[in-house]
Amino acid sequence: MSVDDRPLASFRVSMRDIDIYGHVHNSVYLDYCEDAAVEFLRHREILSHFRHTSSGVAYHVKKAEITFHNPIDVDDVVEAKVTVEKIGRTSLSFAIELFRQRDGAHCASAGFVWVCVGLSDSRPTPIPDATRAALG
């Protein structure tokens, strides 16, 4: 497994994440994906670019999309892989893949679009050059 193929983040499923059918509730997958995206930024040592207090801008989720492939159960360890799919003028797109550690099953594919906005008006604003360079 190459460095780029290794999971970036992993999570152990808690009982609070389980629905009445005994597997992770659909909405919780988005929490896992958002946590994975933040871990991706932390791993790249660029999380400060996404904190409004240090960057002068904020990022809002414009779109979140998920496709479910296999269920995840209590106490499973979920591994996440994150990539930046696209960096636009005011937005960026992440792709997140979730896998069950015990058997490697591909459990979900997700995508997020974050829009960079100004702090004073919450209107789209260009992604700062330093952030763009750090992501590239």
Automatic annotation (TrEMBL):
InterPro entries listed in its UniProt record: 4-hydroxybenzoyl-CoA_TE, HotDog_dom_sf, YbgC/YbaW
GO function terms (MF aspect): hydrolase activity
Chain segments annotated as transmembrane: none
Keyword annotations: Hydrolase, Plasmid
Origin superkingdom: Bacteria
Similarity remark: Belongs to the 4-hydroxybenzoyl-CoA thioesterase family.
Protein name: Thioesterase superfamily protein
